[in-house]
Amino acid sequence: MRVRETARGGTAVWLVVLALAQAAALFLVWRFAVHTEVGQWLDTVALTGNRIGQERIDGPVDRILNAMSVVSLLVATGMIGFIALIRGRIALAVTATLLIVGASVSAQLLKYVLTRPDFGVDPERAAAGNSLPSGHTAVAASVAVALILVLPRTVRALGAFLGAGYAAAAGVATLSAGWHRPSDAVAAFLVVGVWAALAGLLLLVTQRERAEVSSADAHRLAAAVLGLGGALAIIASGLALSWLVDLPEVPVDELARRPLFIGYAGSAAGIVGTMALVAALVLATVHRLVPRYKRQVRK
Q1: Before 133, cis peptide (omega within 30)?
Q2: Within a domain: 176
Q3: Could you identify which of 176, 180, 203, 261 might form a hypothetical disulfide with 134, taking C-beta atoms 3.0 to 4.6 angstroms apart as the criterion?
Q4: Is 276 a member of any domain?
Q5: Integer Cα distance of 164 and 141 in angstroms
Q6: 4-37 burial, b if ≥16 CB within 10 A, otherwise e?
Q7: pTM for the structure as a whole
């Protein structure tokens, strides 16, 4: 019993660290991308670069974005809750629902609470004000993370890849359609990451005494692939954006096709990489949060 409590305590500390780290990353993304001139310029370059090849991807982008409606959110939430309930996990169903609702509502509230100064970098969208974080992206990511939590361990890794892929595609789609700046999508993933850590703490508190954490249920390889892939994508994004920063100061509308494409592709890589890391962190911990239960022996 003491060993089990120690393990739970260690997991709880890890989840608190994750929540604080992702909240700090969210703050830094907001401060750099929104409250610095170079950050706004990089976002605008990426958003302007979405015109390159746009006619080829308009169809898939529209289908992805149209799928993220209020009705689809309710259906997805209901399905996730149903999966948890048929597994006999009432606390899991409630927690997954709170994760989706909490992350989605938080993203909308933050959009109106956070400020965006006008540095004259993007006059066409200055009147729109702050758009960070992206609500659509937060919805997709929260559903993906909740899916990782509720799926049985036999299909959990597959669900993680599919969910992370869908959420990443949704984040890039908001950029491709011109709905959001890349920092908006990255911030949305971090909001979901914070809520995922908080949901994990709730699952620990409600864990039954019969819970049996097994290392055989850990998806270490899948989590490592997601984490390494995400890290490499973020590094590639950083290299691309640093190359742009080294360019002479030129108005965005005067940039050539190459820097616009690098800004767009580099930002897309950052969006994909961030979601992959968030999913990897959830997948690496979920076997401790949603363990198997020992069968009760009838006397």
Answers
A1: yes
A2: yes
A3: 180
A4: yes
A5: 7
A6: eeeebeebeebbeebbeebeebbeebbeebbeee
A7: 0.93
pLDDT per residue rounded down to tens, the chain (299 residues): 444 556 678 899 999 999 999 999 999 999 999 999 999 999 999 999 988 766 666 677 777 777 777 778 888 899 999 999 999 899 999 999 999 999 999 999 999 999 999 998 888 888 888 999 999 999 999 999 999 999 999 999 999 999 999 999 999 999 998 889 999 999 999 999 999 999 999 999 888 766 677 777 889 999 999 999 999 999 999 999 999 988 867 788 888 889 999 999 999 999 999 999 999 999 999 999 988 766 554 44
Length of the chain: 299
Number of domains forming the structure of the chain = 1
Range of the domain at 72: 2-293
Question: What pairs with residue 212 in β-bridges?
Answer: 292
Q: Is residue 299 one of the residues assigned to a domain?
A: no
Whether 107 is in a domain gets the answer yes
Structure tokens at 202: 């709730």
